[in-house]
Specification:
The complex is a heterodimer of chains A (305) and B (528). Chain A is mainly alpha-helical and 305 residues long. In chain A, 75% of the residues lie in helices and 0% in strands. Chain B is of the alpha+beta class. Chain B has helices spanning 3-22, 57-63, 111-121, 159-163, 171-174, 179-182, 187-190, 235-243, 254-260, 291-300, 303-309, 339-349, 351-354, 369-384, 396-403, 431-434, 452-463, 467-484; strands at residues 32-36, 68-70, 77-79, 82-87, 93-98, 137-144, 147-152, 198-204, 208-213, 226-230, 249-252, 266-281, 315-317, 360-364, 389-393, 416-422, 487-500, 503-504, 525-526. The chains are: A mainly alpha (305), B alpha+beta (528).
Chain lengths: 305, 528
Amino acid sequence: MVLALSVLVFILLRLAPGDPIDAYVNPASPLSPDAMQALRDRLGLDAPLPVQYFGWLRAAVTGDLGFSIQRVGVPVLPLVLERIGPTLLLMAAGLAIAIVVGITAGIISAVRRNSPTDIGFSVLAFVGISSPAFLTALLGLYFFSVQLRWAPSGGMLTPGAGFSLGDLLAHLVLPACLLSIGHAALIMRYMRASLLEVLNQDYVRTARAKGVREFFVIVKHAVRNALLPVITLIGSTIGIAVGGAIFIESVFNWPGMGLLLVNAVETRDYPVIMGATLVIGATVIVVNLLTDITYAAVDPRIQVA
Amino acid sequence: MTLKTTTRSLALAALLGATALTLPALAQDPSTITGGFDVGPGGFQGNFNPLAATSGLTWLSVYYEPLVIYNAELTQLEGALASEWSMSEDQREITFTLVEETWHDGEAFTSADVKFTLELAKNAAAGSVFAARLGAITSVDTPDDRTVVVKLSNPDTGLLSTLAQVMILPQHALKDIAPEELATSTWWATTPIGTGPYKFTQYVTDQYVELAADEDYRNGRPLTDRLINRYFDNSAAAVAALRAGEIDFTYVEPDDAATLADNADYRVIEGASFVVNYVGFNHMVGLWDDVRVRKAFMHAIDRQAIIESLYGGAAEAANCGYVADQLVPADIDQYEYDPDKARALLAEAGWSEINGDKPITWLTYYNTPLAANVMAAVQAMLSQVGINVVPRVVDTPTYNGIVYKEGTPDWNEFPLVYAGLQNGPNPAGINVGLNESQLPPNGANIMRVQNRMLSAAFDAALGETDPVAAEARWQDVCRVMNAELPWATMWVANRYGVASNDLVDFVWTPAPAGGPFASHPEKWSKSE
């Protein structure tokens, strides 16, 4: 599947107009086509496409993804690997917030069905689902960074300040919260619907009849079963979270895979695009596999083959 | 604990935690100046190799230095690593006297470094973008450590301007790297050394570059300990950081400059872009063969209204490739807005037979809201006289991919373009886009302008060695452009930077390609 992805991306890249040298030249102070050709020759961009692809593939299977064209002398693999961490951190933080908020709000909504709280959460969920990531990111940036100055406007660490956990978390809070909005809303809707269904089951009624406290009825008996479709949802939203992270990373200059990929596409940095999509594709496949395993752990009826 | 209490406690803890963690990140350090120095059209984030710098020279010139450099007004050259220079009478020899300076690693800077750099910059195999422009150099001699003699095959009036962009490199650090491997060397972004007032400390990939004051700088130790060049994906993100108090300076779009103009915390810096914007006619498509059609364009577009309403007055209408007083003759046609005249010219030329109201693709790489508004206004004005243009906005690589396409490009993909070309400080800048000798693959005459009179005027100006006579020759170029209209020249707009009022003696100008210009970073400081 990863191989097919690499072929597809390679072909799409070559079909797109403009190449790395075209991206390199400022139209207001142009280079001659001869000079541009010399740069292309140096980078091997004029070789036949099959030669370019198999050359890349041959090196890729040995772990060599080549060099970035726009970042002089920077090898792609370390560049991509160092971006995985920030993206995973952002996605994990965003999803963690979404899971906590979404499940909690879903439970409250279900338990207090048709109450003002339920209606309020439902309205917020609709707004959250309907808001595109780029809009919430820009609004969040404007209000919380520019106007209120509660959080840094971008980056992962304060430039030149050295690493500190507090600094990292301060930079993480806002983008992670904004990334979580859509997912939290979706999880809340699923959790609410699932829990309402479970709360009408006979075994829940039995638990109540036996005098089990309502808190334990919900948390111990109902929520665990209601979580199954929510876990499936969370797994399937990992891919969507990558897309959301691209927007968030662009707006907040978060040095993750999304920002790397956006910059690489803008500058037609072929080796970086190939390397980044390869890693993202492989990550999504692995995460989906882990989701299936988690599903099996939660529901004993499901066996991992 | 009830569900309600648990939820409230979690929310409160999250809020307090986020607020407490945020505070230290926003602290401002007076010994550090942070800016978006590579934001905007003059910047080049991620490029550390001055030989490959098609822009970004404002920042590179903080830790590297050229032999000569433009002053901050971009009106004349002054010495940088050359304290003085002289030209031989036949204009074929330039002698530079070098300053006493050391590299950031303590090694002495000598004429050998200059020779090494110029030979490298002339070598296309090193990935140098200056190779063609330094073609007139036949030899670089170094009679002693402080003297460099550059010999030329023919007089080249643009050579000193080119040399102002060539950053001198340390021979002792780079001599062991083959020119072919230099472009991919990690040296540029890890351990570069220059002679500028600041020395390279670190580059955090795609986040920022940090420089530290060079204690031994010949003009005195810089007043500020550190300079940080923060990277941004776009100028809007940089403006957000500026407003949030995280950076002290950035390039801004005109709309942002207007919103910050009345803010007492900031100083808006305005300067000419030295880029002439034009509607380029593709001379291979046959639509624009009749000069009356081209003149109709000029009369159909109310440039003054666009300048007033969209640029806020911060642009100057161009009736040739230049707007500088010394380059523009007083007697040229001003092409006043006159749609009736435009209609009459089109009728005389037989526009209804040439094209009529069939749509004409109008290609551009400008993708700012301002450019979109400008193009919409021009489209509406042209439609009123019967020219139906359809804007097509693409990104820069797509644009270059179309107009530079090897072999036979599809001319119908760009019958008309909206573009810009550097027209200063050296007026020879536009030669590359208009002279017949610059037709691809030799040059960037992408609209295939083939006008003998214009080419002759350019050649005469380029060959003129007397500076006073040269201005008259460039006026001739302007006069021919004005009469022949190889492009419909629009305007030269101003560009903007915004600096915190805390900055003292901070110098910046929106120079094309980032200059460089004498900004004297060693004098920059920040009030407490």
